[in-house]
Structures are given as structure tokens and as C-alpha cells.
Design a protein that fits this description.
about 425 residues; Structural Genomics Hypothetical 15.5 Kd Protein In mrcA-pckA Intergenic Region, Chain A; 3 domains; 5-stranded mixed sheet; about 45% helix
Length: about 425
């Protein structure tokens, strides 16, 4: 199955450029045929409005990955220029403008995330990362109006849904800055077509107007056909916004959303969305997803589709070792065994459970268990700690403590630096021994 058919099967096709037979004087093939005939060059852009991408960016960026795996030549465009303006698509108010230094810092921060999604190092067909600030910086305002602006009518620009909606809101409106965004993105497509032979732009369905504007500019200035393909904006089955949780946005940078929280986001997917998301986000082949779909339909409580989704996405963005640690941390926090716990898992647990500190000298002398329970916030007081121990619900590295005089020592250290405490079935805490 070719890339176009695969995208259709996954439910990822929102719209694409179609040429009427009467307009095909140059015999330009339709997009599905073009993708079968040759390896095309395509691009997707992202504006670095934060120092991390989020899961809402994944569909188009993984879309680039799909095209690269199918042998096509992909370009990721960092919007060093467009990011300083802000795309009005999907926005009900003006974005806060960022400084040039802030945008450059965001671009640098996002590069490692793109390297997880795209292969920039393969000798055969490496992905390319470019910054549109590099070609916009030398262009004067007068030159841009003369060489680009003259190809667009205000009527055409006002007809764009996101622009029209903002214009109808008299209290908010739209600035000339954001109104002009369409021209900037259109010029991106033109520049990449002229320099790299780029024929196709992909993006979310809210980008259709910007993409077709670029195709028009290429046809007028270069006298060649260009193509667009849009992917759907993902929603949850319950109607809430994808990528948002009670704790906020799910980011791709582990410093903003921990590996454990990232894994939990996928493992806790609504049953109605599990198979859909396997199709949308993972690179698993169709027969594998079909098997998970059958398993999910037969026994959704087994959660095979959820586990596969969480594993594939966490491995893709954070690597195999981090995924294994997230899986082990999940098992431990839900009552699993602490045997063979790894240092990576401890690193995850530290950020997800209450923690406290002591010193190795204190442990050598013996650190009272009641003190340890209070230090890690597992018990509110020493008196409560004694009651918890007498009630048989306190554990040190999985072993129940029944003696209130018991001391935590260096013999209880795991990996030479931490002690894992538990109260009840899932009340974990980490006690770190400092030098």
C-alpha cells in the first residue's frame, strides 16, 4: 500500500489538491498518482512559539516521518520569521509577540525533538531542517509588497475563515500583522519550490487556506503546479480538546512533561480513542493495528491497544530506556513488584511521588523509620507514623515494617542512593541519601 492509501486507511486525510481535467493543460498528475510516480519533496512548517512542541503538533510531524519512510524527501521548516508574527488560524485573539532572541532560543530547544521524529543523519535520504528567518531577513518590506503582495487580492485574504471570524468580532478584530500571515506562509512554499523543488506542503486542516495560497503563488511566479494535503485536527471522543489534561498541555520536552506523565497520557486514552490513536500517531503497520483492534473489541479491559499506544509513543519521543522506566514506574505505582528496579525508574519516581532527604551518615547510624515517614510526607506526624506501622501498612522496599523502633540504614539503599518507602497499596515515597 502506498503512502496516500496508508494515510487514507489511517483516517488522516482531510483534504488534498485536485486538478480539474480542463485545467490540466500541462498534464499535471493528481496527487495520488504523483506520489506513485516519483519521490516528491514536501514540507511542513511549525512556529516556535514555545521552547517545546506539544502532542497537538504530532500528526503533521509524524506525517513527515511517514513520507520519509516511504522514500520521499522531507523538509521541516522552523518559523523563525512567521513565529514572530503568529498564525491567526484557530485563534480568537492576537498572539503575544516574541522577541527575535526568544524565537531563536525556542528553535534551538525544539531541534532535539524533531530529531526524534525525523531522520536527519541517514546517508540515503536525510530530512532537512531550515529556518524561514534565513530567507525573510534580507527582504525589504517594499520588495515583499511588490514581488509577493501584488499576487493576492484582499478579497481572497478576507475569505479565509480564521480572518473572517476575527473581523466579525468587533471587540477583538485582527491586526494587519496577523492578517498578512497568509502571504508569509505562501512565500515559504514558493521559496522551497524554487530552491529545493518542493512540490507538496502538508499541515493541519486549519492550514488549507495558507497552503493553497502558496500553491497559487508558485503557479503564478514559477509556472508550475504545487500540491497541498491536510491532516485532521484531532479531537477526543468525549469532545474535549486533544493534548490537554487537568494538569495542562502535554509537551514533548521531558523537562516540561515528564516521561511518566507522557506515558500516562497515552495509557489513559479513552477506550473509544485507543485504536484511532494507534492509526493516527504510531508507525505500526496496518496488520498489527488490525490485530490490536480485534483484541480491543473482544476484551477492552485487557488494554492491549492502550499499552501498545503508550509504548510506541513514549519510545518514539523519549527512547526505549525511558519507555521501559516509565512502564516499570507505572507497574510499581499501581502495586507491582519493586524487584530489579532500575536507576532510570527511580529517576522517574522521584518526580512523581513525595520525596524527602537524609544523609548517608544518618543512615549509617540508623535513621528511625518514623522520622523517615514524616520526612517523606507519608505520615503527617511521628504519632501517625507509629499508628501506620502498628496498622501493618508501612513497607521498606516492599517488605512490611511491624517494629516502630525499626531504623532505615544503608542496607536499605537501592542503587546506593535512595530508599523506597510505601504506605498502603500505592502510597509510595522516595528517601534520597545525600553525601
Amino acid at each position: 500500500m502506498d503512502i496516500f492509501e496508508d494515510i487514507q486507511w489511517r483516517g488522516l486525510l482531510s483534504d488534498y489538491t485536485r486538478f480539474a481535467e480542463s485545467d490540466a493543460a500541462d498534464k499535471a498528475p493528481q496527487l495520488p498518482d504523483l506520489l506513485k510516480q516519483k519521490q516528491v519533496t514536501l514540507y511542513c512548517g511549525f512556529d516556535p512559539t514555545a521552547d517545546s512542541l506539544h502532542v497537538g503538533s504530532l500528526v503533521p510531524l509524524i506525517g513527515l516521518r511517514r513520507f520519509q519512510l516511504a522514500g520521499h524527501h522531507v523538509i521541516a521548516v522552523a518559523g523563525g520569521a512567521t513565529g514572530s508574527i503568529g498564525d491567526p488560524s484557530g485563534k480568537t485573539a492576537e498572539r503575544q509577540l516574541l522577541t527575535a532572541d526568544h524565537i531563536r532560543a525556542n528553535v534551538e530547544a525544539i531541534k532535539p525533538q524533531l530529531s526524534r521524529l525525523l531522520d536527519f543523519d541517514t546517508p540515503n535520504n536525510p530530512a532537512r531542517l531550515v529556518d524561514n528567518a534565513d530567507w525573510f531577513r534580507p527582504i525589504s518590506f517594499i520588495d515583499f509588497l511588490r514581488d509577493v503582495g501584488k499576487f493576492f487580492t484582499v478579497n481572497q485574504m478576507v475569505a479565509k475563515e480564521s480572518v473572517r471570524a476575527r473581523m466579525e468580532d468587533r471587540e477583538v478584530g485582527i491586526s494587519y500583522t496577523e492578517f498578512s500571515y497568509m502571504l508569509l506562509q505562501a512565500y515559504d512554499f514558493y521559496h522551497l519550490a524554487d530552491k529545493f523543488g518542493c512540490e507538496l506542503q502538508i499541515g493541519g486542516s486549519d492550514q488549507w487556506g495558507n497552503i493553497t495560497a502558496g500553491g497559487d503563488l508558485i503557479r503564478k511566479k514559477l509556472s508550475r503546479q504545487a500540491y497541498g494535503l491536510t491532516l485532521p485536527l484531532i479531537t477526543k471522543a468525549d469532545g474535549t480538546k486533544f493534548g490537554k489534561t487537568e494538569s495542562g498541555t502535554i509537551w514533548l520536552d521531558a523537562k516540561r512533561t515528564s516521561v511518566y506523565q507522557f506515558y500516562q497520557f497515552w495509557i489513559n486514552t479513552d477506550d473509544r480513542d485507543a485504536v484511532r490513536y494507534l492509526k493516527f500517531f504510531t508507525l505500526l503497520p496496518q496488520d498489527t493495528i488490525t490485530a490490536f483492534e480485534a483484541s480491543h473489541t473482544a476484551n477492552p479491559g485487557q488494554r492491549d491497544a492502550h499499552k501498545a499506544l503508550a509504548k510506541e509513543m513514549t519510545t518514539l519521543l523519549h527512547g526505549e530506556a525511558a519507555c521501559r522506566a516509565a512502564e516499570q514506574a507505572t507497574a510499581i505505582l499501581f502495586g507491582g513488584s519493586v524487584e530489579d528496579i532500575t536507576a532510570e525508574t527511580f529517576g522517574i519516581l522521584r518526580g512523581e511521588v513525595p520525596s524527602g532527604t537524609t544523609t548517608k551518615d544518618q543512615l549509617s547510624a540508623g535513621f528511625a523509620i518514623v522520622e523517615a515517614l514524616v520526612a517523606t510526607q507519608l505520615s503527617a506526624s511521628k504519632g501517625q507514623a507509629r499508628k501506620d506501622i502498628e496498622g501493618g501498612c508501612v513497607y521498606v522496599i516492599g517488605v512490611r515494617v511491624t517494629d516502630v523502633t525499626r531504623a532505615v540504614t544503608t542496607a536499605d539503599l537501592l542503587h546506593g542512593e535512595v530508599v523506597l518507602l510505601r504506605k498502603g497499596k500505592r502510597g509510595y515515597a522516595v528517601l534520597t541519601a545525600l553525601e
